[in-house]
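Researcher: Let's continue the batch. This sequence belongs to Sulfotransferase, and it's 317 residues. Same format as the previous ones, please.
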Amino acid sequence: LPLHLREDNLSEETKTLISSLPLSKDVIGNLYNYKGCWYYPNTLQGVLNFEKGFKPQETDIILASFPKSGTTWLKALTIALFERLKNDTSSDHVLQTDNPHGLVPFLEMSLYLKSSTPDLSKFSSPRVFSTHMPLHTLQLPLTDSPCKIVYVCRNVKDVLVSLWHFRCAHLKKEVDMESLFESLCSGVGSFGPIWENVLSYWRGSLEDPKKVLFMRYEEMKSEPNAQVKRLAEFLGCPFTEEEKEDGSVDKLVELCSLRNLSSMEINNSGKTFNSVPYSTFFRKGEVGDFKNHLTPEMENKIDMIIQEKYNGSGLKF
Ligand code: A3P
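Model: Same format as before. Here are the structure tokens for Sulfotransferase:
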């Protein structure tokens, strides 16, 4: 089992805490509800370590998402935006030598998984981290810090289909779509409910648009250049007029395209620290792939749930 799904990493304090938390199960294992979000036990340990130990720096950037919403893509784009400022053409691009998840590790599922005081000295400013936690949990150690948060949101039906494929690849067997669908609809699943995750960042972006940027996978697909410029401006590294004219935006978008990233050697042969092949983070990258996998009844049910949950928030889907 991947590390974050096991229960062997828990401190005595966490064991006591989880005995008082709402408990549920999905096909993979136990889930505990902490501050409104469901976590596998080891991930929860990572969340608690993060809450206890994370010391933000003013220039920190945190890339946030619900799983399978475009995290890998957002990481690649952010890395590429800062890399272009370095003007170092002598060596390979960092995206050629490491996967976006190696370059931008998860706080709760990687850096803080085992300790509340990990060694972060290899990160230079701006440090870029990532998370799947909802905003209210992420924000706790960030109080009064000016660091920036970018969230990527994706159509829930495509998230479900992407998650299903990812789980099948992970577990090397056909996962039951029906039970994954039920788990998504009930909200009881890793980092769920998905709508709470999305809405926490959506509201955060309305309250403080300079702190939280809300991006959408579908818009990144339909108008990548405009969305990449928006991201660059938010992160304080806008494209110059010269760059806009000399094709730099196109080049950056092409560098981070699914086709290009998935053809790189590192992403075909490499694995995450907990042995997930990098190749499993790249699949079709299409909008509306749910049509090939969900029945009309499933589509309707998700649409109705999401409509009800997003109602009054101003968030369109
Ligand atoms: P599909 O399974 O629908 O193809 P995450 O990065 O959050 O794990 O999300 C994975 C999804 O993003 C997968 O969707 C994957 O194919 C897609 N993806 C990965 N890299 C991408 C890129 N560079 N551009 C567009 N989509 C990408």
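Researcher: Any comment?
Model: The two ends are 34 Å apart (CA to CA).
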